[in-house]
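Continuing from yesterday's entry. The apo prediction looked reasonable, so today I'm repeating it with fe (ii) ion included to see how the binding region is handled. Same sequence as before; SMILES copied from the compound registry.
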Amino acid sequence: MDTLTITRYDIPVKGVKKKTICHFSDVHLTAYDDLSTPEEREKAIGDTQGWMDTRRFFAEKYGCPTGEAQMADSRLQFSRLLALANTADGAVITGDIMNNVTPADIRATEAGLATLRVPFVAVCGNHEQAKKLPDGLLLSMMKQPISVVDLGDLQLVGVDNSDRIITPTQLAQVEALLAGGKPTVVALHVPMLTPDNYAAVYGCGEYFRMNDFDGCPPENDRFRELVSAAPVVAVLSGHLHFQCVTEIAGGVFQYGVSQGITGNVHLYTIGE
Ligand SMILES: [Fe+2]
Ligand SMILES: [Fe+2]
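Holo prediction written out below.
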């Protein structure tokens, strides 16, 4: 696990028994295996090479290392991240596990998730899309517009915002989930734009944010207000491929984890 870049955060929350949550994102699996067709295999090899360049681009842009550990195969990174998650009390995966949702990507993701021995929430990334995902598997959780894992005194709520839209139904479901007052960790793929991350995120282009763009539905902004206050204790996001941790409002932070394909991961100690 010394190959991973682990950042730890303490989130004190009264009334929650201390627990550790592991969060990673953007592994961008480009898998092939014995069941892959020659065409699938060729495309996966090309995309794997492409992601060597893309991950290096993001890492170098943000001053992160690009050594052997960071450039390891995405399937190896996934297994390292899952192994760390198994040392925690719960896991949150904020999308783009798969790059293309090929049959081999699905097999690799499912095999990885099957190794998890802790409760987890996995949300859809823009590289995945709910309609492409099969039913009846562990990864099918990513098809759900809203997913919930109850850890007793803390709940993990996954929100599919992979198309940068919060629907009225999703908003109503989140409102209902928060109305109970249980401390809540919200997981989404595309980060929210906030006053504190404006300088870092706005200039990346609207592809990288879920607020303040032409045609942004009012539900997106209402959602941001809703998760800016108790009982929400943290919002976890991915998609940016760089680390971006900023206050949303009132002491609630959005924790954007950098790309899992180079081994980045967050560990949160939540509770008291
Ligand atoms: Fe990504
Ligand atoms: Fe993404």
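Comparison notes:
- Residues 26, 28, 96, 125, 239, 241 surround fe (ii) ion (ligand 1) (CB under 6 Å).
- The chain has one domain: 5-271.
Will overlay with the apo model tomorrow.
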